[in-house]
């Protein structure tokens, strides 16, 4: 596997350019955590399944809150208690998950950016191999 230290100056410039274009920002991720109940920060970091689960948990909490409001208007005590319990469970679960994400976010960003680095280095290694096999530079191969 190719390391950053093995790159030439031109390759290092390409690497830096690609990394800046694809890496995720911690500041943006934390801003999106403010909308954490919607799972925005997880969508941003391409963690789609857990983002969808957070979004569904928020929708469930909203539905149970609406049920609580409507059941209080109707006056059904059993429905009020059930909706309060269901709302509290979904809202507390979502709140705890967001607080945990507050501490997990730096690691998630580091893992995402590390994967981007490995992908870029892997592509550069592939281009080097192609260059060596053909005996010509990659730009001249692309022009043909």
UniProtKB/TrEMBL annotation:
Q: In which domain of life is the source organism classified?
A: Bacteria
Its keywords, alphabetically, are:
Membrane, Transmembrane, Transmembrane helix
Q: Give the matching Pfam families.
A: TM2
Q: Which organism is it from?
A: Paenibacillus solisilvae
Where does the sequence pass through the membrane? Answer: 27-45, 52-74, 80-104
Q: How does it sit in the membrane?
A: Multi-pass membrane protein
| Localization terms from the record | Membrane
State what protein this is by name: NINE protein
Q: Which residues form the TM2 domain?
A: 22-66
């Amino acid at each position: 596997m190719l390391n950053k230290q093995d790159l030439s100056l031109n390759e290092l410039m390409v690497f830096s350019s690609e990394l800046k274009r694809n890496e995720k920002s911690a500041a943006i991720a934390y801003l999106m955590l403010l909308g954490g109940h919607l799972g925005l920060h997880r969508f941003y970091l391409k963690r789609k399944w857990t983002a969808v689960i957070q979004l569904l948990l928020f929708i469930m909490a909203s539905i149970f809150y609406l049920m609580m409001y409507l059941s209080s208007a109707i006056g059904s005590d059993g429905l009020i208690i059930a909706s309060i319990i269901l709302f509290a469970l979904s809202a507390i679960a979502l709140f705890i998950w967001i607080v945990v994400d507050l501490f997990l976010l730096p690691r998630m960003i580091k893992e995402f950016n590390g994967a981007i680095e490995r992908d870029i280095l892997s592509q550069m290694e592939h281009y080097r191999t192609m260059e060596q096999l053909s005996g010509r530079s990659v730009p001249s191969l692309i022009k043909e």
